Amino acid sequence: MTDARNRWAAPFGWIARAFRVPGEERRNLVQTTKAAVAAVLAWIVATSVLELPQPFLAPYAAVFLVQATVYRSLRGWAQQVGAVSVGVLLAAGAGQVIPSVTVALGLVVFTGLLVGSWRGFGDSGVWIGVTGMLLISYGSATEPILLADRLLETALGAAIGAVLNAVVLPPLHGERLRAATSRLASAIADVLDETAALVRGGEPPEAADRLHDRMRDVRSLVAEAEDAIDWTREGRYLNLRGRRETREEPLANLVTLWPPLAQLIDAVSEAARSEQPFRHPGEYARGVVGELLEALAAVTRSGDPQRLDRCRELVGEIDHLLVTPTDEVTTSIGLGAMALPARRLVQRLHAD
Fold first, then answer.
1. Residue 219 shares a structural domain with residue 346
2. Is 197 found in the same domain as 269?
3. CB 165 within 8 A of CB 64
4. pLDDT tens-digit profile of 185-211?
5. Same domain, yes or no, for 151 and 69?
6. DSSP assignment letter at 118
7. Is the pTM of this model over 0.85?
8. Which among 109, 133, 167 is the end of a domain?
9. How many other CB atoms sit within 10 Å of the CB of residue 194?
């Protein structure tokens, strides 16, 4: 009963979040509304202003040009108009020289889809074959006026969709960036805390296996972060609201932590599982490394660069242990294998 109520309430919860939170739900609602408005405007202009007969391509093109970024809308306009133009020319040529509609249809679709596979047309390449097919099947391929109408209504609808998307609340992707930053920072900090516990000896060696599972989760979040950065950069391009977009530098800096973090986990796991030459160093040295990792976790969570001072002090203490052997540092190779990626983590956090 509870599950059924939750399913019925889900759409209302989605709408409530769209109005309450400036997140993905609101962006989707705005884009959907703009697509509907663009379709209506394209239909009104095509029918009432230009008085085009059966201008079904105008609203169709308008809807597809309200895309996720302004750049994609403007690029899509050029690609779509180009694709439809080629489709119209193919249909006109086939209609003039091939008397059989069946043969002309097959040839136009084949040629159109083949030409449309060129990457310069992007996702609009399929329109070459589709436009030619529609014109041939409707018997419009031999009527120049109708061919011109199809091209005009497509250009009109695409232009309305692209302009509306660029002028009215052009889409940004800052919430995706903020969410990816929060998830990745939290995951890296958790892994650093777990690694610190393993270094100190508070976890069994089997914990290294669980740590590697967590690292696969982090790697997935890194891929998500890279995708969010790409969307944010593209969304800012040619966008009238681009200056208001969230900066991607903090997330990009977190992404750079992945290689040294993976190296650190490998060094700690090897030390926890095996004997020489990567045996754990003595208790005091393990405590210093553990404290460093916990401090790095705190910096990652808070984003406070002032906490890095303590991290640098601990890195200096590890360096001192490496060059000043004591009875506790039984294996300097193992400590050195942990120290190098830990140092790189401090350096990359400091670069932010």
1. yes
2. yes
3. no
4. 999 999 998 888 888 775 666 677 787
5. yes
6. S
7. no
8. 167
9. 20
